[in-house]
Amino acid sequence: MVTQITSKDNVKIKLAVALKSRQKREEYGLFCFEGDKLSIEALNNNADIQFIFISSSYKDQSLAEIFDKNKIDVYIIPPNLFDKITQSQTPQGVLTVAKIKSLKTVDNIKEGRYIALDAMSDPGNLGAVLRSVDAFSIDGIILGAGCTDLFSAKTIRGSMGSFFRCNYYLAENLSYALDALRCKGFDIYCADLDSHAVSLNNLTFSKNVVITIGNESNGISDKVKEVSKTLYIPMSGKSESLNASVAAGIICWELSKS
């Protein structure tokens, strides 16, 4: 159904405003993201879409028809109301609200190649990691405690749609989860510049492996290091380190070649 909304006091508008907060996203079990391409990606990948807002200034009204045909409620709102719900500095005029699906735990991992994140704090970096995981067909991503919110609008925007195609696993105690996977036969590595680290160029990965990327400022935690072998990415220039998402992209590429 396509419906017009004109009041800022409408319950749907108030809900969309509330979902800017991580606390409210967790409370309501809902999240939102912006853009026409992301809305179509979500639809094509079976996201549990609840409803969609489209600004009356948005040019292509066929988008409303697409969602209406898929039995998803569409709300047409004036630009001044869209400005209240948007989280973008340059909004496209499309905002989708979807249900947060429960994430699997690491116990569900049986085999494959995975990237783990040890308290990655920047949502833009997380989104970029998702793009690499998706691009190189990595089997999934393990989110350790302290990671930025997977369901933030910035994370989803940064993933360029890959958010909807990745497999996610939660690890409240990352070092414990990695050690459990090691006991299952997984090779466990972390990216770190310590004296025992082996060059990425000199490694051949097994079919069951997890590689952890650390926090942008603090790197890999000591407990994760204790259960991991270390690797480093060789660099020929003068930079001391790589951005965490760039490092993840290089590692995903190497995993895809093995």
Describe this structure in words.
The protein is an alpha/beta fold and 258 residues long. The protein folds into 2 domains: 98 residues, 2-Layer Sandwich (60s Ribosomal Protein L30, Chain: A); 154 residues, 3-Layer(aba) Sandwich (Alpha/beta knot). The chain is built from 10 helices and 13 strands. The chain has an 8-stranded parallel beta sheet with strand order 6-9-8-7-12-10-13-11, sandwiched between helices. Strands 1-4-3-5-2 form a 5-stranded mixed beta sheet. Helix 7 links the parallel strand 8 and strand 9. Helix 6 packs parallel to helix 7 and helix 6 packs parallel to helix 10. The longest helix is centred in the C-terminal third of the chain and has 14 residues. The chain is elongated and about 60 Å long.
Output the keywords.
alpha/beta, 60s Ribosomal Protein L30, Chain: A, 10 helices, 2 domains, 34% helix, 258 residues, 13 strands
What portion of the residues fall into strands of 2 or more residues? 15-25%
Number of strands: 13
CATH architecture assignment name of the largest domain: 3-Layer(aba) Sandwich
Q: How many strands, what sense, and barrel or not for the largest sheet?
A: 8 strands, parallel
Give the uncertain stretches in residue-range form.
Answer: none
Rg result: 20 Å
Average pLDDT rating:
95
Under the CATH scheme, which class of the largest domain?
A: Alpha Beta
Tally of helical segments: 10
Instruction: Specify the overall morphology.
Output: elongated
Structural class by sheet pairing and helices: alpha/beta
Question: Which homologous superfamily in CATH is the superfamily of the largest domain?
Answer: SPOUT methyltransferase, trefoil knot domain
**Succession of helices and strands:** EHHEHEHEHEEEHEHEHEEEHEH
CATH fold descriptor of the largest domain = Alpha/beta knot
